[in-house]
Amino acid sequence: MAKNTRTILICSGKGGVGKTTLTANLGIALANSGSSTAVLDADFGLRNLDLLLGLENRIIYTAQDVLDKNCRLDQALVRHKQEPNLALLPAGDPRMLDWMKPEDMKKISALLSEKFDYVLVDCPAGVEDGFKNALAACNEAIVVTNPELSAVRDADRVVGILNTCDIQPIQLVVNRVRPKMMANQEMLTIDDVTSILSLPLLGIVLEDEQVIISTNRGEPLTLSGKKSPASKCYLNVSQRLAGADIPVIDPNKESKSLKDKFMNLMQTKIF
Amino acid sequence: MTLRDLINKLLGRETASANTARERLQLVLAHDRVDMSTLTTDLLDKMRREILDVVAKYVEIDFDEVAVSLETEDRMTALVANLPIKRTISGEIKLKDNNKKTSK
């Protein structure tokens, strides 16, 4: 391995917490900052990363084709038009006959690390084979969760498995944060989630309607450069991931109305 | 306790749902982390009895005060057993309250 490539697993256990959205936005943000970045969709049963990036019509080959020598890696990589530093590689397609094995994923990640600074692996939900395949390709991990019981519980299972593997660091992103509900104590706080999972916090992402709108368009928020709450968060996460010494976005500061300030005061520990 | 909890208590209102969430989560994770598929309550009970049998070979235990439980802290789950010892089999008596040892 000539380059010091960081191959990062983006996983959650539970489905629908925002793995793929995070992968797409981080991919764009890292590429935009000048690092050559590949996003690998390891979820070939239900792949969606192509949709979020607006690349669904441009996929011809998959990683499976590269391994079978049906094509070269360059041919399988789908370059993003507006962000040429970013390339997508789908691991396979749903009609695939042979399922990939951990060794196959290792080969693919070795090929990618010759070309890219960052490889983000979008992991399928669950803790079964799909997850273990994706895991084999990576040397660090981001666990995505929501401040919600079932998501945290499933994340805990994933962390338990990651801890037994050679994966370091394992960092946490809390997605779909609603500062008002947290201030009202109607939602688990960031501190609750980090202390329960005992993981270092890479960042938070605020709940934001713009995420849905950007998905409809196939243009990740970090691509447009719009200053929506979630897009600011994705940018913050990508900078922290790249090693920038900046603080995590504070959800309390993001809700500034008088009522919210009062609610924060009510949260003060008195004994 | 937070300011809000105090006011809720004074007004006799339900506590905020985040507290309930936290408590339920901590409980369910304590079970998940020891992998309850392999360690059921029955098995835990059996293990407890076997541990006591072994210990009872060497020392006399105060069975009324025995407590065996699983405690989870910082992702580590530990089996915690508190077995107050009345005396050793050889007759040596240990006084628990003043920590004095009577030697032979």
Can I get a quick summary?
Chain A has 14 helices and eight strands. Chain A is an alpha/beta fold.
Write the layout of secondary structure elements.
The complex is a heterodimer of chains A (271) and B (104).
Chain A: E1 6-11, H1 19-32, E2 37-41, H2 49-53, H3 63-67, H4 73-76, E3 78-79, E4 86-90, H5 102-113, E5 118-122, H6 129-136, E6 140-145, H7 149-163, E7 170-177, H8 179-183, H9 190-197, E8 201-206, H10 209-217, H11 221-224, H12 229-241, H13 251-254, H14 258-266
Parallel strand pairs in A: 1-5, 1-6, 2-4, 2-5, 6-7, 7-8
Antiparallel strand pairs in A: 3-4
Helix pairs in contact in A: 1-12, 5-6
Chain B: H1 3-10, H2 17-33, H3 41-58, E1 59-61, E2 67-73, E3 76-82, E4 85-88
Antiparallel strand pairs in B: 1-4, 2-3
Structure description:
The complex is a heterodimer of chains A (271) and B (104). With 271 residues, chain A is α/β, with parallel strands linked by helices. Chain A has a single domain, classed as P-loop containing nucleotide triphosphate hydrolases (Rossmann fold, 3-Layer(aba) Sandwich), CATH 3.40.50.300. Chain A has helices at residues 19-32, 49-53, 63-67, 73-76, 102-113, 129-136, 149-163, 179-183, 190-197, 209-217, 221-224, 229-241, 251-254, 258-266, and strands spanning 6-11, 37-41, 78-79, 86-90, 118-122, 140-145, 170-177, 201-206. Chain A has an 8-stranded mixed beta sheet, sandwiched between helices. The termini of chain A are far apart. The mean pLDDT of chain A is 91. Chain B has 104 residues and is α+β, with helices and mostly antiparallel strands. Chain B folds into 2 domains: 1-33, no CATH class; 39-104, no CATH class. Helices cover 41% and strands 20% of the residues of chain B. Chain B has helices at residues 3-10, 17-33, 41-58, and strands spanning 59-61, 67-73, 76-82, 85-88. In chain B, a hairpin with a 2-residue loop joins β2 (67-73) and β3 (76-82). The model of chain B is unreliable at 96-104 (pLDDT under 50). Chain A binds chain B through residues 148-149, 152-153, 156-157, 159-160, 163, 182, 184-189, 192, 196-198, 265-271, and chain B through 1-4, 6-7, 16-19, 21-22, 24-26, 28-29, 32-33, 74-75.
